[in-house]
Amino acid sequence: MDFGLKGKHAVVTGGTRGIGRAITLALIEQGVSVTACHRQESDEAATLRAEFAARDAAARLVPADVADEGDVRRLLDVAHEAFGPVDVLVNNAGVISHLPLAEMPTAEWRRVVETNLGGTYQMIRGSLDRLARPSSIVNITSAVAKHGMPNAAHYVASKAGIIGLTRALCKELGAEGIRVNALTCGIVDNTGQKSPQGEAGKRRYAQMTALGRLGEPAEIAAAVLFLASDAAAYVTGAVLDVDGGI
């Protein structure tokens, strides 16, 4: 399906693995120039660069920590110099850990919240002078922001905060032609990544969905393409559930 995005420029955070990688590659397939970022070198980063080369894609992969204001500014400077104003910003970078609140050090709370919610804030704030007008911001959050999850209060709080940030900024930035939307993702089967719950956990989560299966990264990417495109020109402040009816 052609979403009419050819010639646009997108920045995708956390773009080397799972959902972020699928979004990055889906945008490239639509003819979008993409600047993706990752926090550290990895096999996934190396193979993504190889995919860029194999496709002769107008794409760059930049190391950056989205929680670091200086890294964010450098990332956006590199993106703008390479491909011009940013038409689509996808805030996907995130971290998680599993700890009961009574055992959660303050440092771990801060690490997760400052990466997930703080990183989204840093990227949007830092991009205001780099965004095209009009443009689209898509924030990736999680179904647990609505439903909750034990032993991950920091993660749930950060993902719920992204929904609040989305709804606030859609009103603040709408007059400039900047749309701000969020996707709440369900359990996604990131092929090649080990699930902390194991295969039994995957089966249990699949049974919790109306569709009886886990999601695929490409299905999240397809929703991002819709929100990035003119098909969603009158959509802002929306929180789109892509969770299989969990």
TrEMBL record:
Record's keyword terms, sorted: Oxidoreductase
Domain Ketoreductase: 8-191
Entry-linked Pfam families: adh_short_C2
SMART domains: PKS_KR (SM00822)
Gene3D superfamilies on file: NAD(P)-binding Rossmann-like Domain
Family: Belongs to the short-chain dehydrogenases/reductases (SDR) family.
The protein, known as: SDR family oxidoreductase
Annotated organism of origin: Actinomadura alba
